[in-house]
Amino acid sequence: MAKMGVECTFVSPDCTEEELNAAFKPNTKCVFGETIANPALTVLDIEKFAQAAHSYGVPLIVDNTFPTPINCRPFEWGADIVTHSTTKYMDGHGVAVGGAIVDSGKFDWLAHAEKFPGLCTPDESYHGITYAEKFGKEGAFITKCTAQLMRDLGSIQSPQHAFYLNLGLESLHVRMARHCENGQAVAEFLVKHPKVSSVSYCGLSSDKYHALSEKYLPHGSCGVVSFELKGGRAAAGEFTKHLKLAAIETHVADARTCCLNPASSTHRQMTDAQLQEAGIPAGLVRMSCGLEGKDDLIGDIAQALEQVRA
Ligand SMILES: Cc1ncc(COP(=O)(O)O)c(C=O)c1O
């Protein structure tokens, strides 16, 4: 983002209202968060962040990829724009990279015109129209997205990939229930295991985010469970090596179970201390439970844990 001239101020999802208020700057344009963060699996207090964003005249954008609209509809809690990586559960089979932006059409851009010149002043590349005047709050942002991101810059799926995505969407509601059932069963197994030091899954009554999940995710969260092995990076490496059913993949939220130790793959450039600071300890394993039978999944995890010596 910095390379594109966009600065970000980070706040913890658990921040106090004071800390949240202190993060807003005169040039803040939006607040962005994930309903369920990947891979820490924190749950966002959407109402709290929406209220803060609105009091500073900016929209709340929520990445709702992990719960999908089946398990959470952030607009009902005050979010203004929702994004999804459709590459994940929506497609469900990892066949087509894609993303979606959904605009609630509720944010009043003109009321904060000085912050949003791209929507509130004439766009010479689009016949001199002012999006917020021509399309109203219902259509301004999403029309700019389609006119500029899709038409001018080409952020658009190929017809074949859109076809794959549509196939996936038709069974999303059935698959999400199974992902949640498997995630819950795996989390309950892991939390009792002597080689596991901690488990993050908001469906566990012991989880730090359980109360928030009861509010925002009453029908389930997702199939992704993160846990930490007592033996750290070495133990996590050994564990993943012995898995037979779960594939080692960067991909997540798929019909097939996929597993990742960020410290030895996506985040391997970072030291243990840097990982800890980012909320991704070196021994963290992200297990994305697929649609397999839960007994098979637990059996695979159990035999891999058995072989961990560290
Ligand atoms: C929550 C979330 N949002 C967005 C993305 C980006 O997805 P894509 O690979 O489709 O660009 C990811 C990828 O892991 C993700 O987990």
TrEMBL record:
<dbReference type="GO" id="GO:0006535">
    <property type="term" value="P:cysteine biosynthetic process from serine"/>
</dbReference>
<keyword id="KW-0456">Lyase</keyword>
<dbReference type="Pfam" id="PF01053">
    <property type="entry name" value="Cys_Met_Meta_PP"/>
</dbReference>
<dbReference type="InterPro" id="IPR000277">
    <property type="entry name" value="Cys/Met-Metab_PyrdxlP-dep_enz"/>
</dbReference>
<dbReference type="GO" id="GO:0019346">
    <property type="term" value="P:transsulfuration"/>
</dbReference>
<dbReference type="GO" id="GO:0005737">
    <property type="term" value="C:cytoplasm"/>
</dbReference>
<keyword id="KW-0663">Pyridoxal phosphate</keyword>
<dbReference type="InterPro" id="IPR054542">
    <property type="entry name" value="Cys_met_metab_PP"/>
</dbReference>
<dbReference type="GO" id="GO:0003961">
    <property type="term" value="F:O-acetylhomoserine aminocarboxypropyltransferase activity"/>
</dbReference>
<dbReference type="GO" id="GO:0018826">
    <property type="term" value="F:methionine gamma-lyase activity"/>
</dbReference>
<dbReference type="GO" id="GO:0071269">
    <property type="term" value="P:L-homocysteine biosynthetic process"/>
</dbReference>
<comment type="similarity">
    <text>Belongs to the trans-sulfuration enzymes family.</text>
</comment>
<dbReference type="GO" id="GO:0030170">
    <property type="term" value="F:pyridoxal phosphate binding"/>
</dbReference>
<dbReference type="InterPro" id="IPR015424">
    <property type="entry name" value="PyrdxlP-dep_Trfase"/>
</dbReference>
<protein>
    <submittedName>
        <fullName>L-methionine gamma-lyase</fullName>
        <ecNumber>4.4.1.11</ecNumber>
    </submittedName>
</protein>
<dbReference type="InterPro" id="IPR015421">
    <property type="entry name" value="PyrdxlP-dep_Trfase_major"/>
</dbReference>
<dbReference type="GO" id="GO:0004124">
    <property type="term" value="F:cysteine synthase activity"/>
</dbReference>
<dbReference type="InterPro" id="IPR015422">
    <property type="entry name" value="PyrdxlP-dep_Trfase_small"/>
</dbReference>
<dbReference type="InterPro" id="IPR006235">
    <property type="entry name" value="OAc-hSer/O-AcSer_sulfhydrylase"/>
</dbReference>
